[in-house]
Amino acid sequence: MITLRPFEARDKDWLVDRHQTLYGEAEGFDDTFGALVDEILAEFVARHDPVRERGWVAVEGERRLGSIFCVAAGPDRPQAAKLRLFQLDPGARGKGLGRHMLLTCMGFAREAGYGEMVLSTHESHRAACALYASTGWELLESRPVRSFGVDLVEQSWRTRL
Asked: What is the DSSP letter of 60?
């Protein structure tokens, strides 16, 4: 049985490694990606607001399968939440778990009082982008970038809660 449980600080190293490994293998991302994930998680562990920010880890027994986070978008956007670190191991995809994780995160953001949610991703994450579109997200912008050692098309998405 697969469940979502709250992110715990002990998940940090696993999460950094999974993101680095999965995106390194699938897209050729260099080590700067793992460093960014580490920085994001260190900030979350040290300073997150548990009332308005939360992370989840999908687990099957003791096996971790993926993650998703809801954080404040920033002081200049107090009514906006940001979706971060959404990933699902390839063997766990195609079973509706990603949709469940996304809807859980969006529901939390709504209940925490956010009026909208935003995210940044890459065009190459086609399944994730299709999931966003099917759950009411709107693509705001696409632009070519060079990030993590590769050429990508970065996308910005938003949904009203």
From this structure: E
Q: Is 114 helix (H, G, I), strand (E, B) or coil?
A: coil
- Give the residues across from 44 on adjacent strands: none
- Domain holding 95, by residue range, is 2-118
**Residue 115 tokens, joined:** 């009026």
Does the pLDDT of residue 113 top 90, yes or no? yes
Q: Look up residue 25 and give its two tokens.
A: 């293998």
- For residue 63, the 8-state DSSP code is E
d(CA 159, CA 106): 9
For 53-98, write each residue's pLDDT tens digit: 999 999 999 999 999 999 999 999 999 999 999 999 998 998 899 9
Taking the CB of residue 45, how many other CB atoms lie within 10 A of it?
A: 14
Rg (CA), the chain: 15
Considering the chain, what is the average pLDDT of its residues? 96
Q: Quick one: which of 71, 21, 62, 79 has its CA closest to 41?
A: 71
Q: Kindly state whether residue 157 falls inside one of the protein's structural domains.
A: no
Domain count, the chain: 1
Give how far Cα 132 sits from Cα of 53, 78, 97, 143, 155, Å.
Answer: 20, 22, 14, 18, 12
User: The domain spanning residue 90 has which CATH number?
Assistant: 3.40.630.30
